[in-house]
Amino acid sequence: MSSPTTGPVPYAGPSHADAGGDDQEPLQIDHNASHSDSDIDSAYESDEASRRTGSITSSIYHYEYENGRRYHAYRSGQYVLPNDDAEQERLDLQHHIWRLLLRGSLYTAPLQIPSEDDSPVGGHDADFRVLDLGCGTGIWAIDMADEHPAASVSGVDLSPIQPDWVPTNCAFHVDDYEDGWTYRDNESFDYIHGRALGGTVNDWARFYGQCRAHLKPGGWVEMQEYDAWIFSDDDSCDRAPWTMEWVNKLDEASRTFGKQINVANRHKQWMIDAGFVDVQEVVHRIPIGPWTKDEALKELGRFERVHMQMSVASHTPALFTRVHSYTPMQVQLLIEGVKREFRSKDLRLITIYRFIRGRKPTTDL
Ligand SMILES: C[S@@+](CC[C@H](N)C(=O)[O-])C[C@H]1O[C@@H](n2cnc3c(N)ncnc32)[C@H](O)[C@@H]1O
User: Fold this and answer.
1) Are 137 and 92 in contact (CB under 8 A)?
2) Which GO terms describe its molecular function (predicted)?
3) Which of 27, 82, 99, 126 has the fewest CB atoms below 10 angstroms from its CB?
4) Quick check: CB of 95 below 6 Å from ligand 1?
């Protein structure tokens, strides 16, 4: 895995950042707020060239179809969630949930990103380098680049589903982060970010080893992950048989496939084992539905209920047909059963989201 062939340059547009604001009230996020026509003209450019001039040919766009869903073609079969419009909508909805949890921020690590004024004349050659692994639709990378014009943000994914028009300090690349990373010494990163990567990695020790090797001394790695499991504080799980069958079989299938999905609670130890220091984990519990009294959680719960219904529809078809030999009809029945329980007013189901971060020792060159 290597850097984009066209180097990103800093973006000169406005910032709507509230990054790092841990003590603030939850925000309503308007992702379009700072994207006026003039911004688009001056600060966005087409990133198509960086993807096309990479080592990858146009065959990456020859998607594969199965059970009515569309899947990636590059390294076909490696990743079991679809990449179609419905999945992209789910990822962008979940992006909103992640940001609500962080009260508008994009990360928890104490990053010291230079402001635009600190960047070299002309704003070029930004040296705060950010890598977004498994960037999906690119929404996190684009927001990060927008909000930090003096950073350069690279997004990597198996699927070329990111928009062509992106901030000039943002670039996307089709690549496989399970391969050996080939970034040169002068391409080390200040911050490596991954979100919702459960189920995408076979060997996490190797993954974190590569993160550490390609961070600058003192640089941060951060994973933002959800538990692929459902919880309750009362007997709701006992009264949600479809849901419990779903999470149990999903876990079993993903293990059989070789990339377990329900691993969010293991990242902290993995980071420690890989030699990261100052490792911290922040855990959030989100209700599925607006059944709590707390207003902020009520709002999160409303979004999470919609998100989880989309989530069961995207997580189920490939793994259950390929590993458990379900028929498409059985898959559909299971999906509908779980969605019905997520909508039930009688159940108080809970999901868990985690933010885990660690720093590469400053002595580790
Ligand atoms: C659940 S999505 C999360 C997307 C994004 N991080 C977000 O939070 O919106 C996981 C992403 O990882 C990508 N992915 C899976 N395995 C990968 C690999 N080995 N190399 C690069 N990308 C990968 C998938 O294509 C998918 O877009």
Assistant:
1) yes
2) methyltransferase activity
3) 27
4) yes
| CB of residue 99 inside a 6 A radius of ligand 1 | no
Amino acid 209 reads G
**Residue nearest to ligand 1 atom 19, measured at CA:** 176
Per-residue pLDDT of the chain (365 residues; tens, 9 = 90+): 765 433 222 222 222 223 333 333 333 323 333 333 344 435 677 766 555 444 456 777 888 999 999 999 888 899 999 999 999 999 999 999 999 999 999 999 999 999 877 655 444 455 899 999 999 999 999 999 999 999 999 999 999 999 999 999 999 999 999 999 999 999 999 999 999 999 999 999 999 999 999 999 999 999 999 999 999 999 999 999 999 999 999 999 999 999 999 999 999 999 999 999 999 999 999 999 999 999 999 999 999 999 999 999 999 999 999 999 999 999 999 999 999 999 999 999 999 999 999 999 999 87
Does ligand 1 lie within 6 Å of residue 176's CB atom?
Answer: yes
Q: Would you list the DSSP string of 99-143?
A: HHHTTT-S--S---PPPGGGSPGGG-S--EEEEEET-TTSHHHHH
Kindly give, in sequence order, each residue whose CB lies less than 8 Å from that of residue 334, ignoring residues fewer than 6 positions away. 242, 245, 246, 316, 320, 326
Q: What is the pTM of this model?
A: 0.87
Enter the DSSP assignment of 169: T
How many angstroms separate the alpha carbon of residue 324 from the centre of ligand 1?
23
172 in contact with ligand 1, CB cutoff 6 A: no
Q: Is the distance from the beta carbon of residue 142 to the nearest atom of ligand 1 less than 6 Å?
A: no
Question: Which is the closest atom of ligand 1 to the Cα of 91?
Answer: 9
CATH class of the domain comprising 37-359: alpha beta
